[in-house]
Amino acid sequence: MDNAHLTRKQKEFFEYIVDYKKEYDVWPTYREIADHFGYRSPNSVTQNIQALLKKGYLIKRNDEEYDLPSEKKKTLLNESEEKDGIPIRGLIAAGYLQEAVEADLGSITMESLFPNLDKLFALRVSGFSMKDVNIYDGDLVLLMDDDVKNGDIGAVLYDGETSLKKIFWDQNGLRLEAANEDYDDIIVEPDVFEEVRIIGKYIGHINKQGFQRATAKVA
After folding, report:
1. Per the structure, how many domains does the chain have?
2. Of residues 129, 163, 166, 201, which has the active-site annotation?
3. Structure confidence by residue, pLDDT tens digits, 79-126
């Protein structure tokens, strides 16, 4: 999905069909769009729809009908987002006992839990080389597109293969250390160091018990 910027006319076209969808819960027909904009031919409607598809503002469903991408639906169609947040139901004392206060104080959203949400992505683990830090086969590791410090766990891409390891480097090169004694360290010599790409910094993982946040390193 490109999500490229729209031209002024494309933006007007997009806003019209979205507003129509919000009001009538169906998309406008080609004829209704043509009448609204004064197009003489349905080809003008097709060209605008194709532009929106190409720029990622619309998608094609399996039934060949167009629709909004899922990440745009809630924002543009005003769908409820309450289920996406954890409700804050009131206040609780952390000192002396006090009267319980129940109130609607909003909700905890993904953005609240992860301020850098736009930098996050997940990968599914295959293998057991990180089992000693409780990361197992099938878990989902949460990674951030951020700098990795010496000794951090991170995802790396090297020689066409990916791996989740503890990352160490010095004048002798790069060492990718497993958290399982059954696996040998991977040593990358200094002259090929630049071929290694750090994909992301590990910040936690998800398993059947829920979300497990990375343990902060002691300085």
Report:
1. 3
2. 129
3. 544 455 778 877 777 767 667 667 777 788 877 777 788 888 899 999
